[in-house]
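Why this split exists: single-chain examples teach little about how molecules sit against one another. For that reason, every record in the complexes split bundles all components of an assembly together and asks for one structure covering all of them. Below is a record exactly as it appears in the raw files.
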Amino acid sequence: MTDALELAERALAHTDGQALARVVAERSLSLRFARSAATQSTAIDDLDVEIMVLRDGHAGVAATNHVDDAGLRDAARRAADAAAVAAAHAAAAGPYPSPPPGTISEGLVGWDPATAALDPGEGAAAIEAAIRESTRHDQEAFGIWSSGEVTHAIASSAGARLVDRVTDSYMKVITRDARERSGFAAATDMTVGAIDGAALARTAAAKVGPEEPVDLPPGTYTAVLDTEAVGELLSFTAALAFDGLGYAEGRGALTGRLGEQVAAPAVTLLDDPRGPGTLLRTFDADGVAKGPVPLLAHGVAKGVVHDIRSAARAGGDAVSTGHAIAPGGSPEGPLASNLVLAAGDAADVAELCAPIERGIYVTRLWYTNTVREREALVTSMTRDGTFLIEDGRITRPIRDVRITDGLLRILSAVEALGSRQRLVGHGEFYGRRFAHGVLCPAIRVADVRVTGGA
Amino acid sequence: MSTRAPDPGILSLLRDRIDAAPRACTYAEARFVGRRFEQVRVRNGEADAVDTGDSEGVGVRVRAEGRWGFAATREVTAAAIEEALDHALQIARAGPASPRAAEPLAPPSAEPSRGHWGSACELDPFTVSVEEKLALLLGAEEILRTDRRISRGSAESHAMRETWALATTDGVACTQVRTECGGGLQALATDGELIQTRSYPAAHGGDVALAGWEHVLGLDLLGAAGRVRDEALELLTAPPCPSGRRTVILGGEQMALQVHESIGHALELDRILLGEAAYAGASWVAPRDIGTLRYGSRELNITADATLPGALGSAAWDDEGVPAARTLLIEDGVLRATLADRTSAAQLGLPASTGCSRAEGFARQPIVRMTNVSIEPGQAGTLDDLIAATEDGLLLETNQSWSIDDRRLHFQFGCETAREIRGGKLGRLYRDPSYAGITPMFWAGLDAVCSAPAWRVWGVMNCGKGEPGQMLPVGHGTAPARFTDVEVGVA
């Protein structure tokens, strides 16, 4: 792999004035399978060089994957032109007086050599184990095994020299029987050794029972949301409630509500990129150091996350919390990508279900999307294992249902949380691989709004 | 016209490497993609972003021992492509053993695809200065903010040029250049409590076409801005859309999303054959349904057409070298065909691919994707004619939210505006409309589609599928259409 920091320094050398160069280099291997057979195998070795130039506090950013001097020089020129144009059309100085103060660090805390080896044999073995296990249950296996090594390097005119090399491994298994019933399990970890294809298939297959699914009418139900569903909802909460740009622009669900009780007292949530069990990260795309940020403490709204751009827009004492996802800040805002929901004391899903007379158990949610931003109202379908809870026990499968509900309402109706957290990873990787996830337990929620079914 | 072919040396380089592919490969392809993009965005009177980028590389896909392997390299050299070939072969061979014999690929075409094609582009967007683009966008955006209740005005333009070359072991050797360009604007209005959005000409970044800067000029952003502002403000005092079962007319932009989500994705053959069941999902359509399934009313006629001029999903060849074609997918409401690549076509025993294999950039492998999936024009005249012929209903316009299940059966969509229709006339405005349905029942309620003059192509930029994820632009030709007995106001 190209030495990422050396490349960032070469890119920086083509700039003048205040500037920052970031290199994101990806090596990854993804093996897909369907109907218990290999379908697609994808190996990627690519990088992005992003150059940010500052003019009067305004940022111009250009990207390239050309690493020769001509390509870097051209990108630096485009970034300078963009910054000059932004400054010329602004009424005032921009939010970037300079790149963050210079620090020097090289992080390998989130890196595992066995994972970085990207061994296709290891992936194939995990898939074969999953297929064997699903076959044992008379089901077919579908899914993906994916491992990657991503290096982030930053060099800035303020003297920063930062490297963060991380690995991640992800596997998802869906098993399906001849009646089109399906179950799901997934695992995300920094190390490939933690991925157990057979165990995932066993968990998924266990959700496909002999009973025929029943229809559930629209209404409100007490629900037990397993970890995958909780992770999905919290990821949307990150965008709709904890995005500092949305907050500053008055679009956010927490606008004007910091300090208020917005969730149940049992809910404590933080963004913790250095905590145990998360995918460790040391700095953001602006080179700002990452650290834990309290978001909800016993249900009270404590804060939102910022990049330099959103903090400047928010004003007051807002500062970057290290959540830029692109140099100069994304127009979409900063992102809390290491959410950690504190565990509760319910031993397992069965204990969460125990007090429910009639409710639903949801394995995972699919195609969640925002309905109304300010209300953090989302809609989503259940998938791959939705069940009726009757008299305190999971009894029969139900056909998938649509849930349309407010995220803060859901958090305010949390009755209990599981004692075991699981890292719910996002393994689709549109664009450059950016492994992140939510560490969370399963939860029990009152009055979840079911608005339809398939 | 901008039809500059890539450096001829690149195609030669790909052909040489493919000709030398190891004999273990029963099939191999090498695809070069060079991309240049620019996005200009203004927000509240300032140049919010002038993002530019370029990238290039080669993706190599091989088939060996019945399995696929794909490797990508950003280095466009013989050595790097050879290394990628070896890597692709290695990971194909390392894949898990299959319980079933692999089918051969469907043939690419009668004669191997050769030559060069370039999309139409009258005004090269990369020769129009950023200053000129900003002048237009800032001018339109300023009109949005002439009322203090507009808390955020924004406008943007997008340009992308993709240079492409493909060589395969079955003789394909061709190049193409595609230029995309478009834009739009959006007003966010607030009274301190409510927030309402109005977009033009489409939500989610505006409307993009396979065209040059002339497409942006044709949108007349300056002329539209005042109306967009006024409609955003009007929404602040509009009541919520009442719920109930109603007749609805969907505007053309919302029809594009409706076709995209509940027809286009459902007819992707890899989904039907369960190849995407682990991520994008399967389909409510089964292989046995092709030729017999009643998908909707007799008013429903759907085509996939990669030859549509100016449409985002158009090209001369797909990413397997299959020539662009027009395929009738649904005829008078009955399912006739699906979207297929060479692998899925062979799996189902079809004689040929329907030319729907596409990949995002060089570092992703081709999979089954929509090209331009369109509803054909009907006979209901103009939108005004259709409204006049509607006694009681709602006109829903401009997508705001969307969600559909993994079989493309149950959907729920939201729009920016709803207008009441009473006695053939438009009435009061409602905010936050949403509607839901079950795909075949919803399309069974289609009772009128506007005629050809009301039909136009829309560009959808954010179609996601695949693992690793791929975001591709697709086109949808639509006209406003009317549906009966629709569940409205579910959100």
